[in-house]
Structure formats: structure tokens, C-alpha cells
Write a structure and sequence with these properties.
The complex is a heterodimer of chains A (213) and B (314). Chain A is α/β, with parallel strands linked by helices and 213 residues long. Chain A is built from 10 helices and 7 strands. Chain A has helices at 9-26, 53-59, 63-66, 75-78, 82-91, 106-109, 111-118, 143-150, 164-167, 197-210; strands at residues 29-32, 42-46, 69-74, 95-97, 122-125, 155-162, 181-184. Chain A has a 7-stranded mixed sheet with strand order 1-7-6-2-5-3-4, sandwiched between helices. In chain A, α1 packs across α2. Chain A is globular. Chain B is mainly alpha-helical and 314 residues long. Helix content of chain B is 75%, strand content 0%. Chain B starts with 5 loop residues before the first helix and ends with a helix. The chains are: A alpha/beta (213), B mainly alpha (314). The interface between A and B is medium-sized, with 14 and 17 residues.
């Protein structure tokens, strides 16, 4: 295994500052109900209703795990300004995905994500692709299916985020402190031999819905 | 200002001796009931005692820093309590901006008013300005769904967690003849009596409690616990009269008012929790639940204590 990339002091400090602010606002507590926090290669997938979602899951991980867990972020948003690029590349060490590429070039789009799984590290992704209103899950994109088909040994773990849409809802730039929780569920059963894409996505969606209170 | 006079030292050493004794008893109980006989009540008791240590140390640190430290400490407590309260209240997307004002503008302003000791504005800011602003802002957002309920819930949250609680540090602004620069002791008196009364009601309730006062609301609040807790904390209040500007019987009456209000506060907050189907407001203090679970009695006691003292002694 290659040596983990060195993280600069500034980026570490920035990460700590952000996760502290995040805790102050959301008091977030991660409850591991279905599995334990371990450094195995996993795909954590969660419902998406706020810009803070990725940060909340990331900040809720034990610090030792953080360097091996990479949030998946939208390239069209996070590549825009130097500050966003700094946060995404140096602090969260996220992987950027090209959202517009939902056409024939799909395999290429997932390439940076596959590179992470190939290194036996983990991903945080939001299969809905975009933020919802926090009420219902919308349709899952197929990336999660392709990844688990190609890497059958990677555990696919649902994470339900509660109340995040009340902290920083879509369409607002103001944050309001509300206590949030992240519930980590049981890893999905591996993709079955003859299971279709739609069936798998449906199963993944159901597993996430079961974690809703 | 000499806050470290002998009286304050005596009061604090009293508080910390109680903690030492409690920790020893908790340790013995934990040792006796370890392994197979382990008992969740005792685990909770020890968690509570540990949290008490932390809370007392934080309070002492704030007092050491001085008036600013006390004001900032209570502003933070208000912040966490309001956060717990709003989390429970079913607010909607259209309340978002009004809530932002509550947390980041009104709450700090209320404590700035305490800090600069502007009594006139401090006492009307929330009930007049904030309470008229909130419905206005929510109305402008244009969502009429349960308008009155939503407004009332946010107003209530601001009233209890910000306005009422800010009366604790506001005790520092009272000008009491012959007691100048010693007000922080008045504040400690209020906190010690309220919190001890909570503990004593709990202890008497656990030991002798049989008849619940409001069975539907809280089976743990019993007549036995109530009477035992109130009487013993009034006695403690009388014994502590030397830290206050009161004489012994006034200290007793003040303690009675504090403990009665504290009891009522606990009752009202229990009603909210019961209605929402939860046990605690949060999990910020290990063993105690949320911030609001710990300070509910203080929220109700502080304004009454403040105004009684202000009316009769300034």
C-alpha cells in the first residue's frame, strides 16, 4: 500500500476548526447501530438535504478513520473557486465527480471513485445526486450499483442524516443550530448474481429508509 | 473587586466538599454493585456526579474571569438550551430566517444588554421587541400553516431559554447597599439552592416517594420528594444567609420562592417532554440528559429571585 498523502498543518487545523463549528451548530452524534467504525473499505451512502451533509459524516468519524474516508463531491460546485478547491482537495480530501456526465461516458465518470476503492479506502456518497427537501428520498443514481458490482468486497453502508435540512436548507445561506444525528446502519447484503440494477438501487433505498425514525 | 473574600471561599469549599463526599459514596456503591450486580441507577448516579464536578469547575472558572466570564457562560448555556428547544419544536422551512435572528442576533444582544447593565432595555427587549418581530418575520415568509403554533413555540423558547435565564447574570447589575461588588455571591446562592433542591427532591423521591403529584406528567415527582426537597433546601438557604444581603428569615423565604419556582419549572418542562414523547431534551451532559434538563428549574426561579431582590433591596 502506498503511503498516505501528508496533510499540511494548515489543512489539519482547518479540518479541526470546521468540525468544531459543525459540532457547535449541530451537536452531531454518530450512532453506529448496524456496524462498528473500522478501517475497512466501505461505501457510506446517505440522504442528501444540505451542503453540510458530507461535513457532518466526516466530522462524526473517529479522527483515525478520517484520512481514509473520502467524501464524493460535485465537480461543478466544488471546482468553482480557489477556496472551495482548497477545502475539497486539501482538507476533506474529497473526490470530485462530474455530475453532468450521466451519458454514455459513465465508466470514466466513476474512475476517480474506483481509484479510491482500489486503494482499499472508503467513500461517502450521496446517491440522490442532488439535495432534496429533507422529506423523502428521491431516485438513486446508478453509480453506487456500478461501484459495488466492480468491487464486490466493499461493504455498502447506509447512513441516515436527520435534521440537516433544518440547519442549512436548500436555498438558504443562513445556518441555524439544530441538533442532528447520523445513524449508521448495517452493511447491505452483497450484490446477488442475477440482481438487476433497479433491484439493487431499490434495496439500497429501502435500507436507508428503514433508518428513518 | 475582591471576589475571593472569605465568604466565597467558604461557600465554594462547602460545594466541593459535598462533591467529594458524593464521589466517595458513589465509588463505594459502584464497588459494591460491580460485576453481576451492576445497577443502572448507580451508573447513572456516578455519571451525574462526574458531570457535577465539571459543571462546578466551569462555574468557578467563569467567576474567576469576572463579570464578563459569567455573562459569556450564561450566553453559551442559553445557546445550547435554545438549540435543544428548537430541535424539538417542529419548525418549518419558512421559520428558518426568524430562527437565525433568534440565535445569532437576539440571543447575543440580550446578553450584551446584561453586560452593559442597561436594565430598562434588558427587561423589555425580549417581551416587546423580539416578540413582535418574530410573528412579523414569519408572516413575511408567507407560510400560514399553523402560524400561531409555530410563532408561539419559538417565542416560548426565547422566553424560557434566553429571557428567563439571562436574569441569572443580571443579578450582577443590582445595586444593593452595603453589598457592592459582592453580587456574584447572590448568583451562587441562587444556583446552589436551585440545584440542591433538584437533587434533594430527587433523593427524597427515590427514598420515600409514593404518591406522585401529577401522575400523568411525571411519576418521579412525588409529594414526599417535593416536601422533603423543599424543606431541606429552605433549611440550606437559611444556613447560607451569610453570603447574601438578606437576614436569615428572608433568606429562608427567598429559598422557598426559588425552590417552588424551580419545581414548577421542572414540571412545565416535563410536560413539554411528555407531549413530544421524549425523556430528555438532549445528551450534552452525561447522566443528566440535555442542558435544558439541568437548567429548567433555574429558568423559572431566576426572574422571580431577581425581581424580589430588586424590589426589596435596591
Amino acid at each position: 500500500m502506498e503511503k498516505p498523502q501528508r496533510i499540511s498543518l494548515l489543512a489539519k487545523g482547518m479540518g479541526m476548526l470546521l468540525s468544531f463549528t459543525c459540532r457547535l451548530l449541530t451537536g452531531v452524534r454518530t450512532r453506529w447501530v448496524g456496524c462498528q467504525p473500522t478501517i475497512t473499505s466501505r461505501i457510506y451512502y446517505a440522504n442528501h438535504s444540505s451542503h453540510l451533509d458530507g461535513l457532518v459524516i466526516w466530522a462524526g468519524l473517529p479522527p483515525l478513520m478520517r484520512h481514509a474516508v473520502h467524501p464524493v463531491a460535485a465537480k461543478d460546485y466544488w471546482d468553482k473557486t480557489p477556496f472551495r478547491r482548497y477545502l475539497v482537495n486539501k482538507v476533506f480530501r474529497a473526490v470530485l465527480i462530474d455530475r453532468k456526465g450521466d451519458g454514455p461516458a459513465k465508466e470514466n465518470v466513476l474512475e476517480p471513485l474506483e481509484a479510491i476503492l482500489a486503494k482499499s479506502e472508503s467513500l461517502i456518497l450521496f446517491p440522490e445526486g442532488t439535495r432534496g427537501d429533507g422529506e423523502e428520498l428521491s431516485h438513486f443514481k446508478s453509480g453506487i450499483y456500478h461501484l459495488s458490482k466492480k468491487y464486490p468486497n466493499v461493504e455498502v453502508v447506509p447512513v441516515y442524516l436527520e435534521n440537516l435540512n433544518r440547519v442549512l436548507p436548500k436555498g438558504s445561506k443562513l445556518v441555524v443550530p439544530i441538533i442532528c444525528s447520523a445513524v449508521v446502519g448495517q452493511p447491505l447484503a452483497p450484490l446477488a448474481e442475477e440482481e438487476s440494477k433497479a433491484e439493487f438501487l431499490q434495496r439500497a433505498k429501502l435500507a436507508l429508509e428503514e433508518l428513518m425514525p | 473587586m475582591s471576589i475571593w473574600d472569605s465568604e466565597i471561599a467558604l461557600l465554594l469549599s462547602g460545594v466541593f466538599s459535598i462533591l467529594v463526599v458524593a464521589s466517595i459514596i458513589g465509588g463505594i456503591l459502584a464497588y459494591r454493585y460491580s460485576g453481576e450486580k451492576s445497577n443502572p441507577t448507580i451508573d447513572n448516579l456516578n455519571a451525574r456526579i462526574r458531570a457535577w464536578w465539571l459543571m462546578c469547575i466551569v462555574c468557578v472558572l467563569a467567576v474567576v474571569i469576572g463579570n464578563i466570564g459569567v455573562v459569556i457562560l450564561f450566553a453559551l448555556i442559553s445557546f445550547f438550551a435554545l438549540r435543544e428547544f428548537i430541535t424539538l419544536a417542529p419548525t418549518r422551512r419558512s421559520d428558518h430566517e426568524a430562527l437565525f435572528w433568534c440565535f445569532f442576533i437576539f440571543l447575543p444582544l440580550q446578553y450584551v444588554l446584561v453586560g452593559i447593565q442597561w436594565y430598562g432595555m434588558f427587561s423589555i427587549f425580549v417581551p416587546v421587541f423580539v416578540f413582535l418581530f418574530l410573528p412579523t418575520r414569519i408572516a413575511i415568509a408567507g407560510d400560514t400553516y399553523h402560524f400561531l403554533e409555530r410563532t408561539a413555540k419559538i417565542q416560548w423558547g426565547m422566553l424560557v431559554t434566553v429571557f428567563c435565564l439571562s436574569h441569572v447574570p443580571a443579578l450582577l447589575m443590582l445595586d444593593i447597599k452595603g453589598y457592592e461588588g459582592e453580587n456574584v455571591k447572590l448568583l451562587l446562592f441562587l444556583i446552589v439552592v436551585t440545584q440542591l433542591s433538584d437533587v434533594l427532591q430527587y433523593v427524597f423521591g427515590k427514598l420515600f416517594g409514593k404518591r406522585p403529584i401529577v401522575p400523568k406528567l411525571s411519576p418521579n415527582k412525588t409529594i414526599e420528594g417535593f416536601l422533603g426537597g423543599i424543606l431541606s433546601s429552605v433549611l440550606i438557604g437559611i444556613c447560607l444567609y451569610w453570603v447574601t444581603p438578606f437576614n436569615w428569615w428572608v433568606a429562608g423565604l427567598m429559598s422557598l420562592a426559588i425552590t417552588l419556582m424551580g419545581f414548577v419549572g421542572g414540571l412545565c418542562m416535563s410536560a413539554i417532554k411528555r407531549d413530544s414523547g421524549i425523556k430528555d431534551f438532549g445528551a450534552i451532559i452525561e447522566g443528566h440528559g440535555g442542558m435544558l434538563d439541568r437548567i429548567d428549574s433555574l429558568c423559572f426561579a431566576a426572574p422571580i429571585f431577581f425581581h424580589f431582590t430588586r424590589y426589596f433591596y435596591t
